[in-house]
Amino acid sequence: MQELNDDQIDTQHWDAIESLRQIESDALWDHVAALRRASTPSVLNRALAWCKDPDPFRRSIGVSILAQFGPDGKDYPHESKAMICSMIETEQDHEVITSLICAVNFREVHEALEWLISLADHPSEDIRWTVAWALPIPNGQDLKADPATLETLMKLSVDSEPQVRDWATFSLAGSDDDSPEIRKTLLARLSDTDFCTRSEAAIGLAKRKEPGGIKPLADCLMSDQVGELYVQAAEMYADKRLGPALLSLKKWWDVDPELLDRAIAACS
Fold first, then answer.
1. Of the four, 87, 128, 173, 218, which is 20 to 30 A from 94 by CA?
2. Rounded CA gap, 214 and 190, in Å?
3. Contact between residue 168 and residue 130 where contact means Cβ atoms under 8 Å apart
4. How far apart are CA 186 and CA 204, in angstroms?
5. Chunked in runs of 10, what are the mean pLDDT values of the chain (268 residues)?
6. 210 near 199, Cβ under 8 Å?
7. Distance CA 107, CA 118 (A)
8. From the centroid of its chain, how far is CA 96?
9. By the 8 A CB rule, do 197 and 215 touch?
């Protein structure tokens, strides 16, 4: 049997993607990943062509390939960024917009920050969630986030959808930025109806050693739903006022006994 050449293998991946367009399947993304890894000029040209196709499905796939193109996801940066910037000016399809947001994040298209922020008011929950995920928060090196990014995350932290609030709170909590406004936002989320959002807020407040978060955190530790992040936050605070609540957990909390022991020791 004659072996297929690279172009023929790539064609099989493109054809498989087309055949799976109506099916929610990991297999589709396996083929997308294979084309990303191939990172050949022919794959690039076809992805660019799909980005301009009238079919939203093809546009979404095209930009998804460009988003992480090559072994390190960074191949053909100029062609990819130029196409992404061109698409954000006119794209209206929700699925394609979501793919574009991911591409902006992976490709670090700083020029698209204003566009990202504008989508924080989008009626689609999925788009708002993806914005909360994609807004750039520097990690380490004492870098500060763009003020407009922080303002947008604070706005998204009070979104009507729990998953949007959760990710926005996670980003704020994990940032190295600190201000009265950020602390006020995190304090408000410590009483959120969503457990995950409350947990992320607890970590953010403990990281900043915010005194106002200690009493609410003690209440969370005394509740019937205690996750690891609450206990991690208590360990970070290392405040004696949290000791009694932590000791009460010894009666039943078996999620991570070593973590609990460390938190008790820190708050002794």
1. 173
2. 10
3. no
4. 7
5. 66 91 88 94 96 97 97 95 96 97 96 96 96 86 80 97 97 94 97 97 98 97 96 98 96 96 97
6. no
7. 19
8. 17
9. no
